[in-house]
Amino acid sequence: MGKYSEDPKWSDIDPLPTDEGGPNPLAAIAYAEDYEETMSYLRAVMAANELSPRVLELTEDLIDMNPAHYTVWLYRSKCLFHLHSDLHEELEWLNETALQHQKNYQIWHHRLTIVDALGEECDVQGEQEFVARMFEKDAKNYHVWSYRQWLVKRFQLWEKGELEFTEKMLEEDVRNNSAWNHRWYVVNGREAEGVKGVTDPEIREREIKYAEAAIAKAPQNQSPWNYVRGIRKASGTELAALKPLAERYASVERPGTVRSSFALDLLVDILSEESGGKQQAGKALDLLATTYDPIRKNYWAYRKSQLGLGSIETAATA
Amino acid sequence: MSLAAGPGRGHVAVGQLPEELKLVVDKHVAYIQSLDTRKDELEYHLTEHLRIGGIYWGLTALHLLGHPDALPREGLIDYVLSCLCESGGFGAAPGHDAHILYTGYSVQILTMIDGFGALEERLPDCKQKIARFVASHQQPDGTFAGDEWGEIDTRFLFSALYTLSLLGYLPHQRPSEPPLINLPAATAYIKACQNFDGAFGVSPGAESHSGQVFTCVGALYIAGELDSYLGEEGKDRLGAWLSERQLPSGGLNGRPEKLVDVCYSWWVMSSMAMIGRLHWIDKAKLTAFILQCQDPDEGGMADRPGDMVDVFHTVFGVAGLSLLGYPGLVEVDPAYCMPRHITAQISK
Ligand SMILES: [Zn+2]
Question: What GO biological process terms does the UniProt entry carry, in alphabetical order (chain B) (predicted)?
Answer without folding.
Answer: protein localization to membrane
